[in-house]
Amino acid sequence: MKGHLTDKELIEYQFKLASDIQMEEISGHLESCAKCREHLEQLKEKFAALDLLREDVKVSEDLVSQVVEQVGKPARPKVVSILRPRWIGAAAAVLIVGLILLFANLTEQGTRYGPVKESPTLHSYGDGALDKEIAKKPAERLLVTRAKEEKAELEGEFEQPSGHGVRRGATASQRVPAEPGPPFAPASAIELVTLPRRDKVQLTIYNSADLTLVRERRNLTLKKGWNWLQFMWANTLIDPTSLSLEPLEKADKIDIQQLVFPARLRELGRWLIRSEVSGKVPFEITYLTSGLSWRAFYMGTLSQDEKTMQMQGYVRVGNNSGEDYENAQTRLIVGKVHLLDEIAELARRQYPYGSPWPIVHDKKYDYSALIVADELSFKSRSGVNGFFEDKELRRKEITKEGLSEYFLYTIEGTETIADKWGKRLLSFEAEDVNVTSLYKYDEERWDNQTIRFVSFANDKKHNLGEMPIPNGTVKIYSQADEPVSPSASRGGQGYLSYVGGTGIKYIPVNEEVELNLGPARLVKVEPKLMDFKTDNYVFDHKGEISGWDEIRSWQIEITNTRELPIEIEITRGFDTAYWTLQADIPFEKHDATHARFKLNLEPRIERTFEYTVTTYHGLREEVLP
Amino acid sequence: MENTDKSLLDAHRQGDATAFAELVRRYGDSLLGYLMRMSGNREQAEDLFQETFKRVHEKAHTLRSEHFKPWLFTIATHLAIDGLRRRRRLKVVSLNQKLDCDEGRCEELSAVAVADGSCEPSQETVRAEQAEQVRLAIESLPDRQRATLVLAYFQQLSYAEVAEVLGCSVGTVKTQMYRALKTLSQRLPDVSEEIK
């Protein structure tokens, strides 16, 4: 190599762009030439700047998720369309005409110039050969088979693939046993009937069991023949074992054959539907889901005189099911439901009926897995209507039978209940519910606090009684100021003050309910022990005390600082069943060990009464009858 | 045994959602790096990244061989070059772009500088400026040269693989590479020792 290496040679050497021979030559030169080595170093230094952009780039998990979501739908398999562009037909026609002319020309020439050897290429597409050719291309074969089948269906036949026989004129249900099996569940979404929007949806929510029955009505567009309908429940709490599909019209012409849970495809099921009709058909899809709940709560507004109450009942429906329900007719079940399965657990299972993988599989797609899934689904069927006969689901039928025992609470009209949303709905409103306010004092239960109670009955007399009142919380308010109009006295206007709240249990019709509104600050009861003595000692033969009386004198002071008259009930306990009482007001024996005083107090008044109780101990107990 | 790219793609075609995610993770870093160097902008690179895998999904049935990686980069290259052409025709400015950045580049560059952490702030600034010069120098290359350089130098594909990606001969790749390097030798900044 003459002279020094050029930049080109050095670059080619450095980046291995030169041929092997050139590389060797350059390498040899560099060993002997310090200047070129220095030049090479300078070049390396220059290109080292490229390394400034050699930082590691990491793909965020978000981006990966976005990409995967973007291609969430399974890939489209290659399907050769039967409907080719028109120009292909025209081109083919021209080609065929050309070939005929050419063939005629050759034949003519052959006649003229002698026999011509037959072309093997032309003959290889004779009878049966085309099928062989197609057999090499599975996708095309599938297409042709389907094309044949569809053609037959258009002629009113249900032709099966060769080898399975043909049954003419059989009804859909009759055909089922004779059919060798449905078409293989497509792994992709191609040829699936698109699940359209719901036309109607009805929710029946059992709040006691985190269970909701969903009934949807959708108009599906079917084609004549086999149809696959895909239903996905990803990110929802739908119990896939409860899925059911029923045609609402033309039931004799539509046969729901099976529900398949394809292997490798999670959280989706595909119904195989055999239809003798094409076009729109209304279907009802029912399933159970978890995550929808409801609870009742009530608001009572006491009138100024506290003798009546305006009562409003509300229902709050919450949706955490992962699914939006638009314009749903909502029904609420009051009462306990006995469930053996937790729907949420069923919904979260990876496979609806257990793993379809009987053995450990490699990643290669295994058709046997789907067969296992199919068998399981078939085993669970008993009858055309299928899945509600399943063993697991029979348990749920217990709850269904029990429905008549429970009260169904239907919300008027429809409501849209979106996922993660809650909605408060007015369930009833009652004016002028007669209520009784009662203050109670009982040291054994509430220490030295006076507790306020409001009671009413769930009956017609109280403007209620149309339906049982479900469990819930009640908040009671009262008018805090002077009413500005007569209507305000019924809670229509004026300021409200919170009186108290409590939980109530299920109130059947005609049953009375008493609401504990908590301690009353404006009504006070103060018992004072004024005197205590013992008397009437009895001695046994040894001279020891074997009986005595205890006599206590009590003064009870009651202060009503309210602007309203009140009724108060004071309960006093004596820790023994042997007692006698003298009081300056009437009392009643509440039970063996308690006496009860009832008083009506005027507004802003303080009242005192006294009583003396004598309790008998030991042999003195025998004094009492 | 690790699944081959082809088997993952086939599994995806059969509906296995995890297979595609595995492919994305397997080639994600490398592909995103390539697209960032091609586009010079992370935001656009991420768009191209998504578009590339979307095409992979759509064209999955067309891959006959086991050569997934070159095929993936071929798709990415076409998209990147198309994107570059569009950008030249229509200057696109992202609404998310920081106002104090020039054409949305500083975010990536500052990320490079800060991530290292070994430099003083002044050195970081110098380094960031130099990185920007390098990026501009690469951006000034014709598309094919740039793709060749990025694939061969940064993605460390062999020249044969680059040829497969770009659909040309190895000789053409070497020619493109030489031209790219020759241009760069005049445009790359001098990087001082201490900053290197």
Structure description:
- The complex is a heterodimer of chains A (625) and B (196).
- Chain A is α+β, with helices and mostly antiparallel strands.
- In chain A, strand 4 (198-206) and strand 5 (211-222) form a beta hairpin.
- Chain B is mostly helical and 196 residues long.
- Chain B has a domain at 1-92: RNA polymerase sigma factor, region 2, helix turn helix motif (Rna Polymerase Sigma Factor, Chain: A, Orthogonal Bundle), CATH 1.10.1740.
- Classes of the chains: A alpha+beta (625), B mainly alpha (196).
- Chains A and B meet through helix 1, helix 3 and helix 4 of A and helix 1, helix 2, helix 3, helix 5 and helix 6 of B.
Quick structural summary:
The complex is a heterodimer of chains A (625) and B (196). Chain A has 625 residues and is of the alpha+beta class. Chain A is 23% helix and 38% strand.
Instruction: Please report the first level of CATH classification, the CATH class of the domain at 523-623 in chain A.
Output: Mainly Beta
The number of distinct helices of chain B, counting runs of at least 4 residues, comes to 9
Please identify which CATH superfamily of the domain at 1-92 in chain B we are dealing with. RNA polymerase sigma factor, region 2, helix turn helix motif
Detail the poorly predicted runs of chain A. Answer: 74-84, 108-181, 186-191, 356-404, 482-492
* Count of beta strands of chain B: 0
Structural class of chain B: mainly alpha
Oligomer: heterodimer
- Mean pLDDT over the residues of chain B: 77
Task: Please report which band the strand proportion of chain B falls in: under 5%, 5-15%, 15-25%, 25-35%, 35-45% or over 45%.
Answer: under 5%
